[in-house]
Design a protein that fits this description.
Number of domains of chain A: 3
CATH architecture of one domain in chain B: Sandwich
Largest sheet of chain A: 6 strands, antiparallel
Oligomer: heterodimer
Strand order of the largest sheet of chain A: 3-2-4-9-6-7
CATH topology of one domain in chain B: Jelly Rolls
Number of helices of chain B: 20
CATH superfamily of the largest domain in chain A: Galactose-binding domain-like
Shape of chain B: globular
Order of helices and strands of chain A: HHHHHHHHHHEEHEEEEEEEE
Number of strands of chain A: 10
Strand content of chain A: 15-25%
Largest sheet of chain B: 10 strands, parallel
Chain lengths: ~325, ~1100
């Protein structure tokens, strides 16, 4: 109530005197809004908060504002005005936002706009084949982590979210490797997946999948070094022995010294997680938690799906099963 | 009178004579029968072997046992591993080694000086049992064993196991000080029908009367081993043993005298203590019946206490109250009991010495969290309180009910811990954690474990404490502690539990599933397995705009789980209540870490205080974020308050990673040369200072520190992972304690907070659905956003979604929304409403698309380069300020970003805190570039939006000259030392005079009051809370009432209670206001 009285007083003052920005904005917020009124504000005002407020208020004008909002998305110099205009369009039109505008945003250089557009365009469920292909295509080049996350979500049905022990918010202790068991370097089953759909058509990540017909390959060196001049997706599988559970074990992690470039991992048929930060990830070590998935004192089966988009590829450095304490 | 034998005196003298020289010349039967004697002064002399079963010169592991002069040496230097093999003197089993009735075993030993360097902590004295636990194995529950467990440098607990056939029973002493390199005598006695005692150097350190049914010890065929365990898992004694003696019966020196002594308890009282009672107990520990028992106190017979008889094994108590109206000092009462036995007359005497302490003046608690056993040093640094472990958990579990105090050495030791601290003027906090204790015992048991959906125990989690057994147990423990220690007035608080939810997990026991459904109206959501979050990306048809329904079932479940579902919060509430079951409603109970949880109310249950610790690196003002989170948490519990802790320790790997330490020792920092392996090091002093000011700038009820071993050089070797690596930190803390916390603490407790214009939302929905959140660590993007706001000169208030539901956003002008990717519909509606009313939304790219932001702060991922990271965040502060300035005036401004301000308020008075956060890389650990630990001087200008007022520097106790008082506000120049903070009080009325109103005369034994008022010369009172220093002087010197106070609204009333044994004469009352420095004094003639 106190706040409202304050605003009314400010509005009156803004009319009578040469008002401050704050007062002008308070005045703008009052009453009904028309597209033309807000368009004037957008044209005359330079202050970003004022202009963004005007964009937001366009949402109250419904379909009448679509044209102006579309123009703003395309042309406004303020990235946040463009971004907000697209968000308001989304609020007004739902997924029926002008497809050409959305496509322009998806392919434009403004990553924020691209992100909003992707949320609109790929948010539809079930996703059409056409949109799925576009998402897969964009994933190859997208650099923005948030966009990559969204595109991965759209194109990939496997999800697991188990933070490493060191990253757990409820763990106020040092985390160190207590014991370490290297995975075999030799004897891996290997198969190229140029159609990128082995997981769909053959469920080749299952623990009991028959990979006896696959080629053999080593890890610790790239697949190019072993005769495969290939960029794309390939699968690695092996079964390895895991010892009895040690006396101390706060967590178990699979540590990859590096995979060129991205990797998705299954252990005993269960999805473990992925390393997917784009092409820059080719020499970045990573770990994935397998505490609940590892089987002690028996053979364990691991499957790794590697995607390499340029230059050398594959699991070119060793992998260890690490016991953390 | 001549015919009376001073029975007790005889045994006292005898005992002293016997134990004065611990190296025995000959065994002393003393009323018992020696059935085994092993003297190692000359192992070649078979005559010394009374049993003829002694195996002298036995070879151990192929090595000939070495003999020290006059003693048998065990393998002191052997620590663990393969080298730790049988080292004891083994004697073939004989039935007389376990006498049917009373027995005693006595052994003389000398710990090797190297014992404190050993990693292992258990050292066996003698063993005729093997099993230090109850076992179903044949013969396992027979015989006896006694060993030491080392608990610190030259500190041990002596433990005994006794076998009664169907069960094995453990009992032991509390901590004992046994310096290495000196001779001592340990003994155990058992009377054959439940009466057991342990002795060290003739003094009983544990006596227990086992319940009915504990008769003679059970036989076994185990060999008797001196100085080691009889079989595998050897735990050899580390040092020398010169003689061991086994008795049938109990030598008189070990118990055939009655015990007449004060019951263990409080012997330090405050004046007018609410619990002035003491108890003197007379126990007939002899086999005879006493008659005609008469008690005397200070020479005067207590006729009401006369007893005609006292049977063997019984006791009689005399309860009295000490006079707590006397002046502070040391006092004593003498007690005497006279009685007859077998027609002869006897008497015993004892004294009760106690201290009467002045009542504490107001203070802000400054707690050393679990400091160990150095209360004098804690007091010296300025701490007001430390922690003492209590609980009687084992006894409570055994009996299944609350347990009262026991008359034994361990209870006496516990009491003395409190007494010792109270005598020093230190207050105490109970350290309890019974839920964790029982959980540790039961978590592996499927009947109590947390179960996954498949019904299997979830590894690495604590037990399912929502089960009734845990509730009953913690209530019993709370009641026990209240009964045993509730009268200790020096105890002011209690740590209920700590860090318990870290090992909690969603459990699918049928009881849990039913409870969840009853509370939420739906089964546990299929996706809910991880207690911290679910992944919204894996939820089919998750809304595109990431707005979930207000009554979203997943959020409903997680909200319930974090409030009640895992059982811990309810357990805290039960324990907190039961601790006060004897009327100690003044105790403040607390739980920490209070915001290591998602942003939902309820963490800590109904404890009085929640607290949270913070590691100050890399930017110490970040402690403000978790403090503000605590305030957001207690918004859900109107009775709950906030305290805050700074960690004295720093993680080495976050500040100076060992793997990056220079290989060349000459290039290392000094501390790295001393403790290169340190895992936890000492906080830098400038960080400590900035963090302290950041805590005090908020209305906390107390402050805490943890990491004692990193604060002082204790040469603890292997005893602690915390290492002392910075000698400047403790002196800095002391300086701050005495110049800031103590003088200003009472005032700070009375000053409220200032309504913030800027709110920062920590979204529960976003945390649960997108696995984000600060979780109290202050090292997330939310925390960095909070830093951006602080450096920008804003004073953000953290709000939860529940806060918005309860209070709306109407009081705020700006809402900041870091990581708010998913929001409930009602929160979105509230934000829309806020924006319609003019509110400005500042967010980041992750913002839920249903909210249209007015400004987006570019997200920043830290590069682990402290300077670069700080600069990047401060750039965002500058940008934000530039955008918001036209819309948001702030109550204060500082001329550079490193002068961080915050305001509190009382009436028209402002309390303006300014911290100097200008820092650089120092030579302590700055070379790693992870922390800028070294503060730099800073100067600048500060200004307040208020147009008029009188400014006072509360640390310098002086008025500040305001150099610019314009229509825009007040401003003045400031100079800061490294890491320094300042507190300015700005009042509407000048503080020009202190006035004291007191009676001219007073009478000893009668209370009088004086009033203090602070205001201008004309007598107008200030509406401020003014810090005052009061000194009351009697002809003997300063007296009770001297200390620091707060004059609320310029007024203070102090009651003075001259004791009847105080000196009459002129009493002087001096009062100084710690703002303007004005002073006054009056004299009172006390008759």
């Amino acid at each position: 109530m106190k706040f409202t009285c304050f605003i009314i007083a400010l509005s009156a003052a803004a009319v009578v005197f040469g008002a401050s920005l704050s007062e002008k904005r308070e005045a703008l917020l009052q009453g009904e809004h028309s597209v033309s009124q807000l368009q004037k504000v957008l044209a005359s005002e330079k202050d970003p908060i004022m202009r963004r407020t005007a964009v937001r208020l366009l949402g109250e004008c419904g379909q009448d504002a679509v044209s102006l909002l579309s123009d703003l998305v395309r042309d406004d110099k303020d990235p946040l005005v463009r971004n907000n205009a697209l968000l308001v369009l989304w609020q007004i039109c739902g997924t029926d936002v002008d497809a050409a505008l959305v496509m322009d945003c998806l392919h434009g250089e403004d990553s924020n706009l691209c992100m909003v557009a992707a949320s609109i365009y790929f948010g539809e469920k079930p996703l059409s084949q056409e949109r799925m292909y576009l998402a897969q295509d964009m994933l190859k080049t997208a650099k923005d982590p948030q966009l990559r996350t969204l595109l991965s979500q759209v194109t990939w049905d496997f999800h697991r979210n188990v933070p490493l022990l060191k990253d757990r918010p409820d763990w106020d202790h040092d985390v160190v490797v207590y014991k370490e068991y290297p995975l075999p370097l030799e004897g891996w089953a290997f198969r190229l997946d140029p159609n990128t759909n082995l997981h769909l058509v053959e469920r080749c990540y299952e623990a009991d999948y028959d990979d006896s017909t696959w080629k053999k390959i080593s890890i610790g060196k790239t697949w190019e070094e072993q005769g495969y001049k290939y960029d794309g997706i390939a699968w690695y599988r092996i079964t390895f022995d895991v010892p009895e559970k040690p006396d101390v074990c706060n967590a178990v992690e699979l540590h990859f010294d590096s995979v060129d470039e991205s990797a998705c991992v299954w252990l005993n048929g269960k999805y473990v997680g992925e390393h997917n930060i784009g092409t820059v990830g080719w020499d970045v070590p990573f770990s994935l938690d397998v505490t609940d998935l590892v089987r002690w004192g028996e053979p364990n089966q691991i499957t790794v799906r590697v995607q390499d988009l340029a230059y050398a590829g594959g699991i070119y450095r060793p992998i260890q099963l690490q016991i953390m304490k | 009178m001549k015919t009376r034998i001073l029975f007790a005196f005889f045994f006292l003298v005898a005992s002293l004579a016997f134990f004065a020289e611990v190296l025995p010349c000959a065994p002393e039967a003393d009323g018992a029968e020696i059935v085994g004697l092993w003297n190692f002064s000359d192992p070649s002399d078979p005559a010394q072997d009374f049993t003829m079963n002694f195996w002298p010169g036995r070879k151990l592991n192929g090595k000939t046992v070495e003999y020290a002069p006059g003693a048998f040496a065990f393998q002191p230097c052997i620590d663990e591993g393969a080298a730790l093999k049988a080292s004891g003197i083994a004697v073939k089993s004989q039935p007389q080694f376990i006498p049917d009735g009373a027995m005693a075993f006595e052994i003389w030993f000398n710990f090797d000086k190297g014992v404190n360097d050993l990693k292992r902590n258990r050292f066996m004295l003698f063993d005729k049992k093997i099993y230090f636990y109850q076992s179903d194995k044949e013969g396992a529950n027979g015989g006896y064993m006694v060993y030491f467990d080392r608990t610190g440098v030259d500190k041990y607990k002596m433990t005994c196991w006794l076998g009664f056939g169907d069960k094995s029973v453990e009992t032991g002493s509390e901590g004992l000080s046994i310096p290495a390199g000196s001779w001592h005598c340990a003994a155990m006695t058992y009377n054959g029908h439940g009466g057991f005692s342990l002795f060290l150097d003739g003094k009983c350190v544990r006596h227990v009367e086992f319940p009915e049914g504990h008769g003679k010890l059970a036989q076994n065929n185990t060999q008797l081993t001196i100085g080691d365990r009889s079989t595998s898992n050897y735990t050899p004694f580390a040092g020398l043993v010169t003689q061991a003696v086994l008795y049938k019966g109990i030598p008189n020196r070990y118990g055939m005298r009655p015990i007449f002594e004060p019951f263990p308890g409080k012997n330090v009282f405050y004046r007018f203590d609410e619990y002035p009672g003491i108890r003197i107990r007379f126990t007939n520990t002899t086999e005879k019946e006493f008659t005609d028992i008469r008690f005397y106190q200070d020479g005067k017979e207590l006729t009401a206490m006369h007893r005609s008889e006292l049977k063997s094994g019984k006791f009689v108590d005399y309860d009295l109250a000490v006079d707590v109206s006397l002046k502070a000092g040391k006092y004593s009462h003498a007690f005497r009991v006279e009685y007859q036995a077998d027609g002869a007359e006897y008497s015993s005497e004892c004294t009760f010495n106690y201290d009467l302490m002045a009542r504490p003046t107001p203070y802000m608690p400054m707690v050393m969290w679990n400091q160990g056993d150095d209360p004098a040093d804690a007091k010296e640094v300025g701490f007001t309180s430390d922690m003492v472990v209590v609980g009687s958990m084992g006894r409570v579990r055994d009996t299944g009910a609350p347990v009262p105090a026991e008359e034994n050495a361990s209870y006496a030791v516990e009491c003395e811990r409190f007494n010792r601290r109270a005598r020093l003027g230190l207050r105490n906090i109970f350290w309890m954690i019974p839920g964790s204790w029982l959980s540790d015992k039961l978590k592996e048991d499927p009947a109590y474990a947390r179960l996954n959906r498949a019904g299997k125990p979830i590894p690495n989690t604590n037990a399912d404490v929502s089960l009734p057994i845990f509730k009953k147990f913690v209530e019993d423990v709370g009641r026990s502690v209240a009964m045993q220690f509730g009268t200790f007035t020096s105890v002011e608080g209690a740590l209920i539990h700590s860090e318990v939810r870290d090992h909690s997990a969603i459990s699918f026991r049928p009881e849990d599933v039913a409870a969840a459904e009853a509370a939420t109206g739906a089964p546990i959501p299929e996706i809910a397995t991880n207690k911290n979050s679910v992944d919204y990306r894996s939820i089919p048809n998750f809304p595109l705009n990431r707005v979930v329904p207000t009554d979203d079932p997943i959020l409903k479940f997680y909200s319930w789980w974090w409030k009640h579902g895992d059982g811990w919060n309810d357990l805290h509430s039960i324990l907190s209540k039961s601790l006060k079951s004897t009327g100690r409603n003044d105790l403040w109970t607390f739980f920490d870490p209070g915001v290591r949880s998602p942003a939902v109310w309820g963490n800590g249950g109904d404890v009085d205080i929640i607290s949270q610790w913070t590691y100050s690196y890399p930017d110490p003002i970040k402690i403000g974020e978790s403090t503000d989170e605590l305030f957001a948490m207690v918004e859900g519990n109107p009775n709950q308050k906030v305290m805050k802790m700074t960690q004295v320790i720093w993680y080495r790997n976050k500040t100076a990673p060992v793997e990056r330490m220079p290989a060349d020792e000459s290039e290392r920092a000094d501390w790295e040369k001393v403790v290169p392996e340190a895992k936890f090091i000492t906080i830098a002093p400038d960080h400590l200072s900035i963090a302290l000011w950041s805590m005090l700038a908020r209305p906390v009820r107390g402050i805490m520190y943890h990491g004692w071993a990193s604060l002082f050089d204790r040469n603890t070797k292997n005893q602690s992972a915390y290492k002392f690596t910075n000698s400047e930190t403790a002196p800095r803390l002391k300086e701050l304690a005495f110049s800031v916390v103590k003088p200003l603490g009472p005032m700070l407790l009375e000053v409220g907070d200032r309504q913030a214009d800027v709110a920062m939302l920590e979204s529960f929905a976003s945390q649960i659905y997108t696995d984000c959140g600060s979780w109290g660590w202050s090292d997330s993007w939310e925390a960095d956003m909070h830093l951006i706001l602080q450096w920008a000169g804003y004073q953000p208030q953290i709000v939860y979604e529940e806060t918005i539901r309860k209070n709306s956003l109407d009081k705020f002008r700006v809402l900041v929304m870091p990581n708010c990717a998913v929001l409930p519909q009602d929160i979105v509606d509230a934000i829309h409403d806020f924006q319609k009313k003019g509110g400005i939304v500042v967010a980041d790219r992750k913002l839920c698309p249903a909210v249209i932001p007015d400004y987006v702060v570019p997200t920043y991922t830290r590069r682990r380069q402290a300077k670069e990271d700080k600069e990047a965040l401060q750039e965002r502060s500058v940008e934000l300020r530039k955008v918001l300035d036209p819309y948001l005036s702030t109550p204060f401004r500082t001329s550079n970003l490193d002068l961080v301000g915050r305001m509190r308020q009382h009436g028209t008075t402002d309390y303006f805190f300014v911290m100097n956060d200008k820092r650089t890389y120092g030579d302590y650990l700055g070379q790693y570039h992870l922390v800028m630990e070294k503060g730099l001087p800073n100067s600048g200008r500060v200004s307040l939006e208020r147009k008029e007022g009188f400014v006072y520097d509360l640390v310098e106790h002086t008025q500040v000259k305001v150099s610019d008082a314009t229509a825009k506000g007040l401003s003045w120049n400031v100079e800061f030392g490294p890491g320094e903070g300042k507190l300015f009080m700005v009042t509407a009325v000048p503080l020009e005079a202190v006035r004291i109103t007191a009676p001219k005369t007073a009478t000893l034994g009668e209370e009088f009051k004086f009033q203090v008022s602070v205001g201008d010369k004309a007598g107008t009172l200030s509406d401020a809370v003014v810090p005052l220093q009061v000194t009351i002087t009697t002809p003997e010197g300063e007296t009770e009432g001297t200390g620091y106070y707060a004059a609320v609204d310029g007024k203070l009333t102090v009651a003075v209670a001259p004791a009847k044994n105080d000196l009459p004469g002129t009493w002087t009352i001096q009062v100084k206001d710690l703002a303007g420095g004005n002073a006054a004094s009056v004299e009172v003639q006390v008759k």
